[in-house]
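Case study 2.
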Amino acid sequence: MGFIFYAFLAGIYWYFSRDEVGTTALALTGALAFLISFYALYTSKRVYPRPEDRLDA
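Prediction:
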């Protein structure tokens, strides 16, 4: 979700400001949000059951 937000925001920012540095920073922030969300999704599918779901924890 964050990836879509930052990609959209980078497009709007570029359209109004024509600033390469700020647009690149927003685009890279979107890429980082994508990497974090992909890692969290991938890890959550591999680790089941979660440690907090165990009754003897």
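The chain has a mean pLDDT of 91.
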